[in-house]
Amino acid sequence: MLKIAAEFGTTDIVATPHSDLTYRFQHELVSDRIAKLCAASNGVPAIPSGLRLSLECGKHRDALACPAKYTING
Fold it and tell me: How many domains does one find in the chain?
């Protein structure tokens, strides 16, 4: 899919895993998987990380303390 996106001129695709009461956000795992995707696609398109964060999951305190973990591309 990344190859097709690049062939059609896509330069960036933001990875937006979800975090809620069912799915726990694992920053290190997400970063590792994005790094592997970038390596496999030679960095084209770029894949900055983001997050769909449900405030119901209790992450709001951590998001306030460590906002770079939860913003697009840190």
Answer: 1
Maximum Cα–Cα distance for the chain, whole Å? 41
* pLDDT tens digit at each of 74 positions of the chain: 999 999 999 999 999 888 888 888 888 999 999 999 999 999 999 999 888 877 766 677 888 888 888 788 87
From the number of C-beta atoms within 10 Å of its C-beta (0-12, 13-18, 19+), residue 70 rates as buried
Residue where the block lists tokens 């709001």: 60
| Residues contacting residue 20 through CB under 8 Å, at least 6 positions apart | 54, 56, 57
What global pTM score does this model have? 0.72
How far apart are the C-alpha atoms of 35 and 50, rounded to whole Å?
14
What is the span of the domain harbouring residue 44? Answer: 2-6+13-70
